[in-house]
Amino acid sequence: MLRIALTKGRVEKKFIPLLQRCNIDCQPLIDKQRRLIINLGDQYQIILVKGEDVCTYLRKGAVDLGVVGSDVLEEQGADEQVNELLDLNTGRCQFIVASKSDFDWNQPRRKVIGTKYPNVARRWFASQGEDVEIIKIAGSVELAPLTGLADAIVDLTETGTTLRVNHLVVHDWLDVITSRLVANPVALKQKRDEIFTLTNQLRQAMEEEYDEDLRKVTE
Ligand SMILES: Nc1ncnc2c1ncn2[C@@H]1O[C@H](COP(=O)(O)OP(=O)(O)OP(=O)(O)O)[C@@H](O)[C@H]1O
Ligand SMILES: O=P(O)(O)OC[C@H]1O[C@H](OP(=O)(O)OP(=O)(O)O)[C@H](O)[C@@H]1O
Hints:
- Keywords: Amino-acid biosynthesis, ATP-binding, Cytoplasm, Glycosyltransferase, Histidine biosynthesis, Nucleotide-binding, Transferase.
- Belongs to the ATP phosphoribosyltransferase family. Short subfamily.
- It is an enzyme of class 2 (transferase).
- GO terms for molecular function: ATP binding; ATP phosphoribosyltransferase activity.
- By secondary structure, this protein is an alpha/beta fold.
- The chain folds into two domains: 2-91 and 178-218, D-Maltodextrin-Binding Protein, domain 2; 93-175, D-Maltodextrin-Binding Protein, domain 2, CATH 3.40.190.
- It is 37% helix and 29% strand.
- The chain has helices at 10-21, 27-30, 54-59, 70-76, 118-127, 143-147, 161-165, 185-190, 192-218; strands at 2-7, 37-40, 44-49, 65-69, 83-87, 93-100, 112-115, 133-136, 152-157, 168-177, 179-183.
- The longest helix is centred in the C-terminal third of the chain and has 27 residues, at 192-218.
- The radius of gyration is 20 Å and the shape is globular.
- 1-O-pyrophosphono-5-O-phosphono-alpha-D-ribofuranose (PRP) binds at residues 139-142, 155-162.
């Protein structure tokens, strides 16, 4: 049986249709209620975790595979215990730098940046030659410039709605984020066939989805 740490929430919701396309019955996952370990037939066991915890489970060998946003991988940094197998092209969103529209980016003082992603934010501003003060925030990051806690934020945007309704504007567009399938290197050796079978099924499911979308646009 393959054990998979799946990021609960948005990543989970967008991963389920891909699993279904692989002819894996996902009803136990859809009907899970408060259960955190869900078996899909006798081949897959899904462990529902926070995105930040996926690689911890993987590194310690508590799971064989993980499904996690590339935002989390970027924040946590490269790790030889975490092998990326596939870009699932779901859970698409983008890192942005945003501020109030009247914020003067040219002023010389050290800027204060609120974010859930301190490493990503520090790296980005360093690449722009700016040393900034970072304030780590757990959620509702858009509040930081609105309340005077920070000058600007580094956060994710998808539809742009949260920025728009809170009157923030994008100053810089950073990396596009998608969900990734990651593996523990020991599992990759020990369960090679099962892992490659699932990876190939997922790749084919993605191609089918792409073809279907293309047909919808061109018909
Ligand atoms: N609009 C979006 N905003 C935030 N994350 C998104 C968005 N779209 C896709 N994602 C992906 O979903 C993951 C977060 O999922 P979700 O927002 O359900 O969890 P959360 O519990 O609110 O976040 P956290 O674990 O940081 O508290 C991100 O790591 C990212 O890869
Ligand atoms: O561009 P949009 O489609 O509006 O999506 C972006 C928003 O969604 C996420 O927040 P989330 O809902 O996860 O709340 P949180 O900040 O409290 O984690 C993200 O941090 C943005 O605030």
